[in-house]
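[scheduler] slot 2 assigned
[scheduler] job type: sequence-to-structure, two independent chains
[scheduler] chain ordering preserved from manifest
[runner] begin chain α
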Amino acid sequence: MADILKWEFPTEQFNVIVSIVIVHHLPLLLLLPNLKAALKPGGQLLILDLVKYENILNRLSDFIAVPLSWIFKRSGTEQL
C-alpha cells in the first residue's frame, strides 16, 4: 500500500487511471496535477466518487459539466 499524495508518479505512463470512492478524501489541488502528468497523451482519468451537494448551484454545475465534457472530448480540447 502507498500514499498517493507521496508516491512519485511516472510521467506519461498510463492510458487510464481509475479512482473509486476515494478522491473526496484528498486535496484535489495536490492530486490532479500528478494524475494528469502520469497519463499518456490522450489518456483518461475516470473517477467514481461520492458527492454531497451543498446547494442548488452545486447540483446545477453537474448538469452543465457533463455535456461540456462531451463537447470537449469531441472537439479534442479536453483538459484535466
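[runner] end chain α
[runner] begin chain β
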Amino acid sequence: MRTTAARVMGAASFGYGVAVACRPEVLARPCGLSEQGSSSLLIRALGVRDAVIGAAMVVLPEDSGLRAAVLCRVALDTGDALLLGTLLPHRTGRAKAAPAALARAAVCGWTLTGDDRSAETLVEDAINVAVRAAQSATRADL
C-alpha cells in the first residue's frame, strides 16, 4: 500500500469536504445545482461525508483500518461518478462531476497497490477514464 499517497488523498478529501460543508456552492455551481434549500442540505451532507472519510484516511493505522477507509473512498467516488454522471440535470454538470469523481476513485485505488506503477501511468489512466466518462455523460439525454 502507498501509505503516504493515501494519507495525502485523505487530507485532500478532508479539506474538500470541509469546504463543501461550509460553502455548498463549491459543489453546486460546477454541477448546475441550486445552492439553496434541500439541495444545499444534501450537498452539505456530502461534504461532511467526505470530511469524515478523509479524516479517517489520515489518522487510521496503516493496517486494515487505512485500507478499509481507502476502499470506502473508492466506493463513494465511484458511486458519485455513476449518480452525478447520469442524474445531474445538465450535460455540462455531468461532464464535470463524473470525470472528477472517477479520477479521485482511480487515484485512491492506486494507493492500495504495492506494485511499481508510476504516478505518470496512473494519471494517464485516470485521464483516459475521465475523458470517456465525460464523453458518455455529454451524450446522455437524461
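[runner] end chain β
[qc] chain β: The mean pLDDT is 85.
[scheduler] slot 2 released
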